[in-house]
Design goal:
The longest helix is centred in the N-terminal third of the chain and has 21 residues, at about 20-40. Among the domains are: about 1-60, no CATH class; about 70-250, Rossmann fold (3-Layer(aba) Sandwich); about 610-645, no CATH class. It has a 5-stranded parallel β-sheet, with helices on both faces. It has a 5-stranded parallel β-sheet with strand order 13-16-19-12-20, covered by helices on one side. The chain has a 4-stranded mixed β-sheet with strand order 14-15-18-17. With about 650 residues, it is of the alpha/beta class.
């Protein structure tokens, strides 16, 4: 009704005289358009056609109704998006930006909903840049916080049990700063985290017409016209009707952005970073796999057992782009590869991004599917070998497949021989190291600071698949002068505060609010048993919310009383995680956290001879020249591993 009234005042002309019939038709037109524009944004993609049909039935005389013209905003959106080469201005994405703008014009509380990687953050960033570019407006700024990364007391404030002093909360401090009369910005305070009825119900007085935040100490902080409260969430499963009715909602479907726009934008950026010909070839290949062949949807039908972790097609596309970016790092800029070499790179990237979450049997079926497509696969020396048993390498101007051959284990005399602490390289550990290095060492784009580059890897696997051992072996090869390693073990008792403290103790102050590892070193944070934190009654894992905040936003808020509300930037961090297969009592992790990680599955070793054989040979000194053992004894010793397995 508010929108319809504003539209009528805007569209009506004081000197215009209408007949009763024309006036009725005009008001019917305005009401129909307002109903359409204010409700279309809340619908999922599949319901839009149904809603439009209902409007035609209710307003049969209104055959077409043009949208409200927002010339100042609509003309600037393409200009701003052109400045960011990784963005594609699709009609549906453009419409979502306009819908968010229209909602913010009539509401001071807005909820932006949608699946992970649907473009919610990009919509807000583009819109604030557009509004800041309009003459006569104060510049716009987004301040983000995750309400689930801290406790309720740390969010709103609490009285000290010892001194009875009031300890301000992170949100209340931010709210006071955002609503300062002297502020030179239009600020959108964005709560970027899951909704529950505990923390969001406390904002009901802010979201209604009172616009006042009331704290437990009696303080009342009013909302100014320069501030708006936004919620960026995946769903509203735990939100009450009272809260939802106080906000405007915009739902961003996966189809509004779509993975096609993601890889088109990536190729557009790659043309600037590398060269146009390479970008065109990669774009054509990626389109062939995901759009023409529909590889993800086809594999769901061909392979009965699904991925060990549920991942959307969009995330698989993002993983593929990160993998291609990492694999092409060794190819000098300007090098002209053959079409077949580019196809090898994309095929290998898709093998790990799409098929890397399968178990051993399903990987063989995946390899057979690739064979039916006539792709350039490695020439198998054994029938059991698949593309997963190879890696690719650039040499002499060509891309070649190389068989994975782990280095030979050499015992360390300095560490001694302790069986429980032995780490032996295997086929799976070598592959894991190769993938981790490929992702974490991929080059960052020069022409864009906002392009999505994955800076984290997650190893998924059952018990005994050497996830932790593989990461530890990888860390032993670090150059201690420039690299550090930090292991954090998660359990059901791990809280956000404990995780924050464990990261803070590894960092020194650099300048202002910037912190990082000492001596400007690179710190690799290994989060073991990532899925272990307790799931609360709202279905959230609060410890993983602060992990997502650190990975995505690069820091967290100070919890010290004097610094509450200030954001601490943590620089030079990369993340590696490990978790078991979800199901059977084991937790999964949130979709919005999965988006930050390149994930692959660690399978059980096909043979343990390669693990225990070298240990037995070392114990009996079989490789020594003067072992003092006869050939018959040596033969018996070499068969000990296989004999033990058969006996067991």
């Amino acid at each position: 009704m508010r929108t319809a009234g504003n539209t009528k005042r805007k569209e009506s002309k004081p000197d215009q005289v209408m007949t009763p019939e024309k006036k009725e038709f005009f008001e019917e037109f305005l009401l129909m358009r307002s109903l359409r524009d204010m409700n279309m944004s809340k619908l999922v993609f599949d319901d839009i056609a149904l809603f439009e049909g209902l409007l035609r039935d209710i307003f049969p005389r209104q055959t077409s109704a043009e949208k409200v013209d927002h010339a100042e905003v609509e003309t600037r959106i393409p200009v701003i998006m052109k400045k960011r080469p990784e963005l594609i201005n699709t009609p549906s994405f453009f419409l979502k930006i306009i819908q968010v703008y229209e909602t913010t014009e009539v509401r001071h509380g807005v909820m932006l909903l949608g699946m992970s990687a649907s473009g919610k953050t990009t919509i807000l960033n583009v819109l604030t840049e557009v509004l800041s570019d309009i003459p006569g407006r104060l510049p716009y700024k987004i301040i983000k916080m995750n309400p689930k990364a801290i406790t309720d007391k740390e969010m709103y404030g609490v009285k000290s049990d010892i001194s009875d002093d009031w300890i301000p909360g992170v949100f209340s401090t931010l709210w006071q700063k955002c609503n300062s009369r002297s502020s030179k910005y239009n600020i959108w305070l964005t709560c970027d985290g899951p909704v529950d009825t505990i923390w969001i119900e406390s904002l009901n007085t802010v979201l209604d017409d009172n616009k006042i935040l009331t704290l437990a100490n009696g303080e009342r902080i009013p909302m100014t016209d320069q501030c708006k409260l936004l919620f960026e969430v995946e769903n509203l499963n735990n939100a009450s009707p009272a809260t939802v009715s106080r906000c405007g909602q915009v739902y961003v479907s996966e189809n509004d952005l779509g993975y096609t726009a993601i890889y088109n934008g990536w190729c557009q950026l790659r043309a600037l970073e590398r060269n146009q010909d390479e970008a065109n070839i990669l774009k054509k290949l990626i389109k062939k796999f995901f759009d023409d062949w529909k590889i993800c949807q086809t594999l769901d039908k061909v392979i009965k057992n699904p991925n060990v972790v549920e991942v959307t097609v969009t995330l698989k596309v993002i993983n593929t782009l990160s993998m291609v970016n990492g694999l092409m790092k060794s190819v000098p800029v300007g090098t002209k590869l053959s079409d077949q070499d580019y196809e090898k790179v994309v095929t290998y990237a898709i093998a790990w991004s799409v098929g890397g979450l399968y178990e051993a049997v399903e990987r063989f079926q995946f390899h057979e599917y690739l064979q039916t497509k006539g792709l350039p696969l490695p020439l198998n020396k054994k029938e059991s070998e698949t593309i997963f048993d190879y890696y690719i390498q650039y040499e002499e101007g060509k891309i070649e497949y190389k068989l994975v051959t782990p280095e030979k284990w050499k015992p360390s005399p300095e560490k001694g021989f302790k069986f429980s602490q032995l780490l032996l390289p295997t086929l799976d550990s070598w592959r894991a190291e190769y993938l981790v290095n490929t992702i974490l060492q991929q080059p960052k784009p020069v022409h864009s600071s906002t392009a999505f580059i994955q800076n984290a890897v997650l190893l998924v696997g059952g018990s005994g698949t050497a996830k932790t051992s593989s990461v530890i072996m990888w860390s032993t090869k670090f150059d201690s002068s420039v690299e550090l390693f930090k292991r954090v073990n998660f359990s059901s008792a791990t809280s956000p505060g404990l995780f924050q403290a464990s990261i803070e103790q590894e960092c020194d102050n650099k300048m202002g609010k910037d912190y990082g590892p000492p001596q400007n070193k690179k710190l690799y944070v290994f989060i073991d048993d990532m899925s272990m934190p307790f799931i609360n009654k709202w279905g959230d894992q609060v410890t993983l919310e602060i992990v997502r905040q650190l990975v995505e936003q690069g820091g967290f808020y100070w919890l010290d009383k004097a610094q509450r509300g200030n954001f601490k930037n943590i620089r030079n961090l990369s993340f590696v995680g490990a978790m078991g297969h979800p199901g059977g009592g084991r937790n999964d992790i949130p979709n919005r956290l999965k988006r930050q990680f390149f994930m692959f599955n660690m399978i059980l070793p096909l043979s343990i001879e390669a693990i225990y054989g070298p240990i037995i040979r070392f114990q009996f000194r079989l490789d020594a020249k003067n072992s003092g053992l006869s050939d018959e004894v040596k033969k018996v010793i070499e068969n000990l591993t296989s004999a033990t397995i058969k006996l067991w």
